[in-house]
Amino acid sequence: MLRMKLRVLLIVFIIVGCNRSSTPIVKPSSGNINTITVVMPNLLWETEVGDAVRAAFAFPAEGLPQQEPLFDLRQMPPEVFTGFARSSRAVLWAGFGDEVVIRMDKNSYARPQQMAVLSAPETDVLVEMILSQSTSIIKSFKQGEIAERQRRIGKSTLKQNALQERFGINLTLPSAYSVFKEDVNTVWFQREIQKGHVNLLVYALPKSTALDWEDPLQDVIRIRDSVGKAFVPGRLEGTHLITEEAYKPYVYYTKIGGLSTIETRGTWEVKGDFMAGPFVQYLLDDKANNSYLVMEGFVFAPSTAKRDYIFEAEAIVRSLERINKD
Q: Which of 44, 50, 236, 310 sees the fewest Cβ atoms within 10 Å?
């Protein structure tokens, strides 16, 4: 009887083992935020095909005071794309093939992972494909990087009630932030970095605020400068934050938390002092509360790369959740 039970257990273990071995093990993805692994032969990387990849994916990110690429590119030939190298979250595979191939693969070698595969029989066709497909690929890669930044933020978050009490919302902020300043309608979060600080302003405006939704730039600047004067002083007495006058901000339309949103990217300065840096602002049309909800990240980090700090602010804003105050 005992021998029979042992035989049955052995059969069960064999069946379970076979089932496990037939299921592919996908390792977790890794790598720096906003980095693309470009799988392409070295010789091809030095031709117009490589130039097209650099032009399409490493052009200067908008709204920064110094030039920084939208993505960092890490090129490697196909024969090196093995083992740990395959764990990159964002992969661009481009090369020659007998047929035209355009596709997005998900979680092929790691999870989460997005891999754009572009193949063509001729150089000019491949270059055109890289340039024409870059917008949709960038959108997909950026969504993945936002999700990854939010995942990392979620490991250690700031516990606060200021946003819930004032605006009925919650944002997932890293625990390194703290409430730096607040009043009835505004909350200012800040975290110290080695050579400066990263900031997040959240405030509400009445729906009666003058705002041309179709051509909003001048109104956005006016709103920013008035809030800066009232709430964000500079280091010297009588100075305050304004929109830098020398550079025109970039304006886009997007959605945050399902709400129509004006996104503005540009540079700020302190009127009367030598301080400046990048900002990204989101102005949400909060029809349910008959107001505009404004969330803005701005960075002060002299002589330091700022792209990823602004990206962090975007990831925080896009974590918006509605809280039922009842």
A: 236
CA distance 248 to 89: 34
Average pLDDT across the chain, whole number: 92
> Is residue 36 exposed (0-12), middle (13-18) or buried (19+ Cβ within 10 Å)?
buried
Tell me the two tokens of residue 103.
């596709």
The residue-averaged pLDDT of 208-212 equals 96
pTM: predicted TM-score of the whole model, two decimal places: 0.89
Place of tokens 């703290």: 178
Greater pLDDT, 185 or 2? 185
Does 9 score more than 60 pLDDT?
no
Query: Cα(197)–Cα(193) distance, rounded to whole angstroms?
Result: 5
In whole angstroms, give the CA distance from residue 58 to residue 67: 10
| DSSP letter for each residue of 253-266 | EEEETTEEEEEEEE
- Between helices 307-317 and 123-153, what is the axis angle to 10°? 60
pLDDT at 246 over 70: yes
Q: Kindly tell me if the per-residue pLDDT of 324 is higher than 90.
A: no
Domains along the sequence of the chain with CATH: 27-153 (3.30.379), 162-322 (3.40.1000.10)
